[in-house]
Known about the structure:
Blueprint: H1 10-18, E1 29-39, E2 47-57, E3 63-69, E4 75-81, E5 88-93, E6 97-98, H2 108-118, H3 126-129, E7 134-139, E8 142-147, E9 154-160, E10 166-171, E11 186-197, E12 200-211, E13 216-229
Antiparallel strand pairs: 1-2, 1-13, 2-3, 3-4, 4-5, 5-6, 7-8, 8-9, 9-10, 10-11, 11-12, 12-13
Amino acid sequence: MTAPAMTRPAAVTALALRLGADPDRICGQVHLRQHGRINLGLPHDAWLAFTAEEILSVTACAFSWRARLGPAQAVVMLDSLDAGKPGRFGVSAFGRVPIPFAPRPQALPRSQRLRYLTELPLVPDAMLHNRALRWEEIDESHLRVATGLGAETVEATFTLGAEGRVASIFLPDPWNFSSRRDTAAGWFGSYADYDRIRNRWIPFHTDVHRRLADRSIGLWVATLFDWQMSGDGLAAPGPSAPRRMPPAAAPPPPLQGATP
């Protein structure tokens, strides 16, 4: 099946430019570091603190996220997606001894593509240069983006805030994908604490939860403490002092809609 040509309404271009994306220069990758908490006990709560490094592609739906979890950061989690290849997911002790932890196999590919969509506000240049994304303007405050083909298509709807930046996102639940956009159930995320770094406006706080018919379950909450982009024409990222140091003892902010 041939992929449809990329479509991008003027409202998407305007959003990307407001966020500082460069329409002329195609940058390489976004490199970020973050700390937060992730819920590994679904459907019940089992929260672990983490610190992580991630690489996100500007031109493809691809990422690599490596995190260390737990009090001694002895648990290593890897979640990665390469364009056109099966995604990878694994958990290990000290990065060596595998730990059985398997998400639903049928949901993993969709979950990983949805994860990339949730992180688009962290990669505003991808809104202009990732040709695997298909956009639709719903109204002046809502934009829908999709990727994938046929039954493997995933989509997300962004809501813009008063300043014209992405304030929140809705994604149909990858674990109950047949419901798609026709229900209030799904993944919901919010973006806050925007700051200007390397000429881009980036949300430094992300909060994602899964809404069911009778309750809301937190998935993850993360705060950036460093953000860099390779090939953006500015000084090379290289080793540098973090823009924001993670707190030494204080826990990350509480997740809205759920109690860890």
